[in-house]
Amino acid sequence: MGTTDIAKTATPELDAVIVGAGFAGLYMLHLLRDKQGLKASVIEGGDGVGGTWYWNRYPGARCDIPSMDYSYSFSEELQQEWVWSEKYAAQPEILSYLEFVAKKFDLKKDIRFSTWVAAADYDEAGAFWRVTTHDGKVVTARHLISGVGVLSTAATPVFPGAESFKGDVLLTHKWPKEGYDFKGKKVGIIGTGATGMQVIPVVAETAGHLTVFQRTPGFAAPLMNEPLTLEEQGKVKANYTEYRRGAWGSFAGVEFHRTRPSALADTPEQRRAHYEACWNDGGFSIWLGAYNDILLDLKANETAGNFVREKIRAKIKDPKLADKLVPKPGVVFGTKRQPCETNYFETYNRDNVGLVDIKAEPIERLTEKGIRTAGGEYELDALIYATGFDAFTGSLFKLNVRGRNGKRLQDHWVAGPHTYLGLMSHGFPNFYTVTGPLSPSALFNMPLSIEQHCEWIADCIAHMNSNKIAAIEPTREAEVKWVSHVREIADETLLPAAESWYLGANVPGKARVFLVYLGGFQRYKQVCDEVVAKGYEGFIQEPMTKAQAVA
Ligand code: NAP
Q: Of the residues 200, 261, 402, 502, which has the fewest C-beta atoms closer than 10 A?
């Protein structure tokens, strides 16, 4: 059937096209196909499932949310069946988990792999989406659901002379499946965020020499990973529903058990003892689980920041090197997402690792042999980019979504993403964004964030089908109100002051809008549920025509 014929029909081929086969896409497919008997298909660029965990195969890649939390909660059978080997799972294990899920729920048969969405156009007359893939094929569906993820399009800088570099170039977000042998090689790496901090210690173990090109020193806490025994897992599994209830009810989707109200209410001695305990717990405990006011009050924040500075300094033998690696006074702790590290700072004590402060000696260009900075030339056999992502919008814009009147999502979001609840946008009916901008997304345990969004979307579609609704979209007013609500909440915190990807600040020219809802997941979920209870308040619902209703 040609495109023109499709446009004339009132019946799209599918109920839903889902983009991406990561945590979001897999669960969305299961909900629509298996729970509602709908015709749904997933389009996935990779040749396997996994999303983030499919692409980010760099050495050292590991989750910094505990395995018992960073997993689906929707199936008791699944969460009882799967066995984790470590407190914080490494990338290969999470990928195996998602492959296991795909097999268990027989999902692969409805996924088109190695296929990229080239464009998605809304057909107003028929109230459906026409999705064109890179190979020129077209599929139509009533609903278009993005499960493309928050951090899936890289923001890799292009340095002058990049094309002249004769060595190997490695991108952490597209790491070669067959791996890479660093043995004896002169390696350079740009980027010392969460990714860089994971890859650096592992590469340093085999590289002949590793040069780290650091622009900004970052705060980080030790992950404190360890094997997860069957006995420990058994304890959680014996009461998993209760365990998950705690996670769902917490701010980050992971429970911390030591949180105290205010860093300023404790004496310096009490505070120090408390920070020590949180530090030793590892992971996000000191960032999100120590005191409630660390991300709200500069003075409270300073106490945490200074503690972390002291801890980092103690790990580095050379005080001059420590000066470069410890965040400068005045840098606010935790307003960028706090990386968790294993052996990162200690790695700089090795003889085969060097640090170049590229604020002091900026990168001028790449040469045939390596990198030339204002301070000299560094010869490299391989260069790794761990330079971050065009978060939230990068992958959504790549879909080339055009809503009513052919309006592009890029144009609707020119001043920053405009969504209602982070789920939908005005003028883009039946287009849903799982963990989209202005939802709790990345500041809540992702698999749980995803579950709540997928379930809301699936319920919305079920509601539409039983009430013969062809199209749904938020009103302009509801969207505008939500955008300012999210901004007002963010402005009550210290987070918007940082040059972070939460704000789009890492991508030149990107609108500076805080992209995450910071009101807490409970409050967010309550709003989502109330909207539904009030008959999809803030949404325009377009009834089906007779022909659509019959189809
Ligand atoms: P990132 O936090 O944005 O860090 C990018 C790094 O590249 C920064 O050090 C940045 O320096 C540097 N950089 C960027 N452009 C540069 C340029 N032109 N010249 C020199 N340096 C440049 O990215 P990421 O490390 O990939 O982490 C992104 C997010 O992914 C994390 O916050 C986290 O949410 C997620 N993540 C999670 C895990 C995990 O679960 N363990 C692991 C990895 C990533 P500046 O700081 O100066 O900008």
A: 261
**The two structure tokens encoding residue 305:** 């920041």
**Domains of the chain: residue spans and CATH:** 3-152+391-550 (3.50.50.60), 190-385 (no CATH)
Q: Using alpha carbons only, give the angle 297, 302, 305 rounded to the nearest 5 degrees.
A: 125
317: confidence class by pLDDT, cuts 50, 70, 90: very high
Give the pair of three-digit tokens for residue 102.
Answer: 């795909």
Best CA proximity match to 398, nearest among 19, 55, 7:
19
What is the spatial distance between Cα 255 and Cα 244, in angstroms, rounded to a whole number? 9
Tell me the best of 153, 215, 325, 392 to mutate to test the pocket of ligand 1, counting ligand atoms within 8 Å of each CB and taking the most.
Answer: 215
Ligand 1 atom 18: residue of nearest CA: 157
Are 458 and 28 a contacting pair, CB within 8 Å? yes
Q: Which amino acid is at 436?
A: G
- Sequence-separated (6 or more) residues with CB below 8 Å from residue 145: 16, 17, 18, 19, 28, 431, 432, 434, 457
User: If you count DSSP H runs as helices and E runs as strands, how many of each does the chain have, helices first?
Assistant: 20, 20
Query: According to the model, what pLDDT value does residue 6 have?
Result: 43
User: How far is CA 315 from each of CA 319, 328, 460, rounded to the nearest angstrom?
Assistant: 10, 16, 52
Q: Residue 185 above 50 pLDDT?
A: yes
Q: What number of CA atoms fall less than 13 Å from residue 349's CA on the CB side?
A: 11
- Cβ(71)–Cβ(47) under 8 Å? no
Average predicted confidence (pLDDT) for the chain = 96
- Kindly report which listed range (6-15, 306-315, 352-361) carries the lowest average pLDDT score: 6-15
C-alpha dist (Å) from residue 340 to 196, 205, 217: 11, 19, 14
Residue to mutate (ligand 1; options 95, 387, 515; most atoms within 8 A of CB): 387
R_g of the chain computed on alpha carbons: 24
Quote the CA–CA distance of 158 and 206 in Å, as a whole number: 27
Cα 450 from chain centroid? Answer: 11
Q: Helix 230-238 crosses helix 240-248 at what angle (to 10 degrees)? A: 80
Is pLDDT of 363 > 60?
yes
